[in-house]
Amino acid sequence: MILLDGRAVRRHLPYPVALLAAREALMSFSAGRVQQPLRTVIRGGEHGVFGAMPVQVLDGPAAGFGVKTVVVKHGNAARGLPSHVGFVLLFDADTGRPTAALDAAAVTEIRTAACSAVATAALAGPAAGEVAVLGTGAQARAHLQALLAVRPLDRVRVWGRDAQRAERFCGWAVQTLGLDTHRAASPAEAARGAGIICTTTAACEPLLSAADITAGAHINAVGACQPGFRELAGDLMASATVLVDSRESALAESDELRQPMREGLFGPEHVVAEVGEVLLGSHPGRRDPQEVTVFDSVGLAVLDVFAAWHATQAARRSGGEQELDLT
Predict the structure, then answer these.
(1) Residue 61 falls within a domain, yes or no?
(2) Ramachandran region of residue 96, left (φ > 0), alpha (ψ -120 to 50) or beta?
(3) Were both Cys, which of 120, 245, 277, 294 would link to 240 (CB 3.0–4.6 Å)?
(4) Domain range spanning residue 27?
(5) pLDDT tens readout for residues 219-245
(6) Cβ-based neighbour number of residue 326 at 10 Å
(7) Considering only CA atoms, which of 249, 230, 231, 221 is closest in space to residue 40?
(8) What is the pTM of this model?
(9) What pLDDT is stored for residue 327 in this prediction?
């Protein structure tokens, strides 16, 4: 069994490969070539949230079993630690033997941003290059890197609750990515005029409403991936064309959808498609240059497994990574 820590995952899973993995995962899921139940979650109060996400990929080179087990601790940022701590485990389809264990924080960071980039490539207007990023953590950084793998970015506006962290983030984006980046004073200021918006926060109350969004914008909403969190107001969700990674998971776990549904703003049919269906050609995705599209992402185990499989294949080709013999 090969073991990949966070550094090794990043070394063997560059964004072009992560984008390929995300596309494969989303299409496999929407084509029914995956068995995946809803994730099991234990909410431990101040001790954090524990999630277990099993999946079976039924065919193809990545066929086999996998599971992500992760503890989510949003307070870890203050400790200099990732918010998601755990492992992605892969198992051989024929023998059932474990074949790989990967750092879940790195896999989650990269595959989440790669999934948003795939959705952006499929749904954003062709001229959209001005970007708003809400949040200043690992996902915010990963999203900019992943977006650069699918299109050039003209200008970036960043909002975060901590102004100093937001300024440091802008400095990083300028120096590391060469992007024209500026700090916004509010979420609405960041979103104004942006053709691509990425919300990557742990907000419990909506940060953006319909009035804040320019016609034709595309939004990747990834921060509110479990009940109790929201980034987008009900009027925004109601007026937008909403796509998801998984209908079942989003309707069960996303309060971006569940709360407006409780308020009677729309029903389950408001989710027009999974992004995998757009990639497969069974849904057109964006139908009007002026419509606002929202990719409401809750995260799927199949994304972790495909990303982990690609990283593991690259690591084995290059050699030098730690192997553990369990026989």
Answers:
(1) yes
(2) left
(3) 294
(4) 2-108+302-323
(5) 999 998 888 899 999 999 999 999 999
(6) 7
(7) 249
(8) 0.94
(9) 60
